[in-house]
Amino acid sequence: MIEIEHLTKTFKVLNRKEGLKGAISDLFSRDYKYVTAVNDVSIHINKGEIIGYVGPNGAGKSTTIKMMTGILQPSSGKIIIDGRNPYDNRNEHLKDIGVVFGQRSQLWWSLPVRESFKVLKEIYMVEDAVYQENLKLFERLVDLESLYGKPVRQMSLGQRMLCEVVAAFLHSPSVVFLDEPTIGLDVAVKDSIRNLIKKLNEEKGTTIILTSHDTKDIETLCQRVAIIDKGTIIFDNSIEHLKEMFGKYRTIRLKLNTDIVTYETAANMLSEKFGQNAIKINGEDFSIEVNEKVVPVKQVLAFIMDALSFDDMNMEDVGLEEVIKKIYEGGAVHVKAV
Ligand SMILES: Nc1ncnc2c1ncn2[C@@H]1O[C@H](COP(=O)(O)OP(=O)(O)O)[C@@H](O)[C@H]1O
Ligand SMILES: [Mg+2]
């Protein structure tokens, strides 16, 4: 159980001046400014939950996670994880959490993974029985056998990330933090990482805090998502609710028969008929985003069939990605025909 109440972190940073002169004057200056990275965040996370923590760059995700892991001291507010304050009880706390920071490694570069795991076992003082049991579980979930003998530096990024993720679970922590675990990976590897995370959560009941820019990670793994923007939580609920709140959007993609009707004409006809609240047309691939709160997609389709000549058409739900983008944009649906 994680309880966060009114958590705030403010950094004091030097107000840098430009150029060489500025750099020299910075050496002597006491001109500081304050950056509030996390601003009055309150959130409760249940045991065993996988929660997605998303937000644009610089929103405060990593800073929140650093405070939850005990690396950073909050400026104010409180965090209690399994009855402990992470910063004040750092040593005990670290034994009870696992961390993967997308681009940094907890494995030893030149050691075979097998040896890295042994070192981690010692650091975390994992009992033999627990260690063996976990290794068995990991082997069932990933083909570790083929990786065990390999030094980390000889691995592909994907292989390394699989090892990083299982390494974070090696000491059976109650909470695991995954900060961008799929960054830079190709689609197939992302799938295996997601699969692995899901299975580990199911088998071990571990609470998982996941940040990712890839909303597919969030969509496949989390029931709940918290969105942070400029240090403040602006949404915290189920993904279902998120999609509903921002209306139901469908996208129609059209390949017009341009001998008969130009894209510009079609765009004008559609905009005139349905208005800017109902549809948004993207000129690049001629996709039509329909806001079903305003007009049923059926009506738009009927109009297209009736009025426009086209070679091909397909339709898709608007995914989490677009919904989140709308939230960053301030929740307003900007409608503009191109
Ligand atoms: N150690 C630090 N010193 C000063 N400012 C920082 C520090 N760490 C983060 N920040 C600032 O705090 C804000 C939030 O950063 P961060 O938590 O890393 O965002 P995110 O992980 O969501 O991209 C940013 O404006 C960032 O520049
Ligand atoms: Mg970050």
CATH class label of the largest domain: Alpha Beta
Helical residue percent band: 25-40%
Average residue pLDDT: 89
Order of helices and strands: EHEEHEHEHHHEHEHEEHEHEEHEH
Principal-axes shape call: globular
Give a quick set of tags describing it.
338 residues, Rossmann fold, Alpha-Beta Plaits, six-stranded mixed β-sheet, four-stranded antiparallel β-sheet, 13 strands, binds adenosine-5'-diphosphate, binds magnesium ion
Helix and strand layout, with pairings?
Blueprint: E1 2-14, H1 19-28, E2 32-45, E3 50-54, H2 61-69, E4 76-81, H3 90-95, E5 97-101, H4 113-124, H5 128-141, H6 157-169, E6 175-179, H7 187-204, E7 207-211, H8 215-221, E8 224-229, E9 232-238, H9 239-245, E10 249-256, H10 263-274, E11 279-282, E12 287-291, H11 297-307, E13 310-317, H12 320-328
Parallel strand pairs: 3-7, 3-8, 5-6, 6-7
Antiparallel strand pairs: 1-2, 1-4, 8-9, 10-12, 10-13, 11-12
Helix pairs in contact: 6-7
Bound molecules: adenosine-5'-diphosphate and magnesium ion.
Residues 11, 13, 35, 37, 55, 57-63 line the site of adenosine-5'-diphosphate.
